[in-house]
Design brief:
With 125 residues, the protein is an alpha+beta fold. 46% of the residues lie in helices and 20% in strands. The termini are far apart. The chain binds FE2/S2 (inorganic) cluster.
Length: 125
């Protein structure tokens, strides 16, 4: 299997790994294809993603896409974050093997869930 240089970079040195303890939003998803899981926590300020971290029990592609997703999402508005797709992330990683594209759903789905969680909590206040 051939991974791009970018995938290898983000897999061997993933960025924004961890958990934001006092997160404003949290999203957890499981991958129905392989059973792996992903958690993303965010801090929001002025409708922008000020900080973001991820934890995953996933494969190399899941780790690389999560790392890239957090790098891309940081500083974006919530609307821009919700508009991000797995293809955006895969393109930024210079592509993923086609049978690994399902792995890239995890991070983007968890990001969307974290944003929705924040919006739900905000509306409840
Ligand atoms: Fe499970 Fe990639 S094989 S996320």
């Amino acid at each position: 299997m051939l991974y791009s240089k970018k995938v290898m970079e983000h897999f061997s040195k993933p960025q924004n790994v961890g958990l934001i303890e006092d997160a404003d939003g949290r999203g957890i998803v499981g991958n129905p294809v392989c059973g792996d899981t992903m958690e993303i926590t965010i801090k929001v300020k002025d409708d922008k993603i000020e900080d973001i971290k991820f934890r995953t029990f996933g494969c190399a592609s899941a780790i690389a896409t999560s790392s890239m997703t957090t790098v891309m999402a940081k500083g974006k508005t919530l609307v821009e974050g919700l508009a991000m797709t797995r293809d955006d992330v895969a393109n930024e990683l210079q592509g993923l093997p086609s049978h690994k594209m399902h792995c890239s759903n995890l991070a983007v789905d968890a990001l969307h869930k974290a944003i929705e969680d924040y919006q739900k909590k905000k509306n409840e206040k």
